[in-house]
Amino acid sequence: MDVLVINADLGPLHRVSLRHAVRMLVRRVAEVHEAEPDRLIGVYPVPTVVRLVRYVVTKWRYTAGPAWSRAGVMRRDGRRCAYCAGPADTVDHVLPRSRGGRNSWRNTVAACYSCNQAKGDRTPAEAGMVLRIEPATPAWTSLGGR
Ligand SMILES: [Zn+2]
Description:
alpha+beta
């Protein structure tokens, strides 16, 4: 069961799991806005909508995009290796993590195991490998919400 999170100004934001919503109540970052009648989870009515206590500026959603995740990188790249276009089963850091490369949309691509191994702790240029794609931040909609 999902719970709708709304901003302090009642603008809808996103949906979270019931567990996540209860954690927000416990941490007092949100309050119950609508609840199921006569049902409790711990000391709280089972929420269907929680309202943030403080207004959150949501402009960042459009500039920074969704949070990085391995699954998101795989989905963005269609599970195709960024180097050889074969089926990808790993996530490669363009600038290797050992050299300060971060978990970010622009620094990660889907890669097959052998390309990832061949590249090792090098940049694509150093390894003589060519990226087929330019890694970018995906749109919210392309990740199917959340
Ligand atoms: Zn490959």
